[in-house]
C-alpha cells in the first residue's frame, strides 16, 4: 500500500542561547514563525532566516524548517 502525502504547514524555528540557570547550565529560547508558504524553497527560507537572525539580540544556536504533512492511503 502506497501512502500519499500532502504538505499542510511550514514553520521556521530559531533556537537562541538565553543565559545560564542557577546550576550553571545554558538555557535556550525558541522563536517560531508560522504560516510560512509550504512551497517556499530551502534557499529562500534560509535567506529569510539569515536576515531575521541579524535583527536578534540573543546568540543564535540554529534554525530549522518544520513541515507538516497529511497522510492518506492511495486506496489500493
State the secondary-structure class.
alpha+beta
What is the overall silhouette? elongated
Largest sheet: 3 strands, antiparallel
On the 0 to 100 scale, the average pLDDT is: 95
- Give the neighbour order of strands across the main sheet: 2-1-3
Intertermini distance: 6 Å
Q: What percent of residues adopt helix (DSSP H or I)?
A: 10-25%
Beta-strand content bin: over 45%
Tally the structural domains: 1
Radius of gyration: 17 Å
Query: pLDDT under 50 segments (min length 5)?
Result: none
DSSP helical segment count: 1
β-strand number? 3
What sequence of helices (H) and strands (E) makes up the elements?
EEHE
Can you offer a commentary on this structure?
By secondary structure, this protein is α+β, with helices and mostly antiparallel strands. It has one domain (3-73). Helix content is 16%, strand content 57%. It has one helix and three strands. The chain has a three-stranded antiparallel β-sheet, covered by helices on one side. The longest helix is centred in the middle third of the chain and has 12 residues, at 42-53.
SSE map:
Layout: E1 3-20, E2 26-36, H1 42-53, E3 60-73
Antiparallel strand pairs: 1-2, 1-3
Produce a short descriptive summary:
The protein has one helix spanning 42-53, and strands at 3-20, 26-36, 60-73. With 76 residues, the protein is an alpha+beta fold. A hairpin with a 5-residue loop joins strand 1 and strand 2 (26-36).
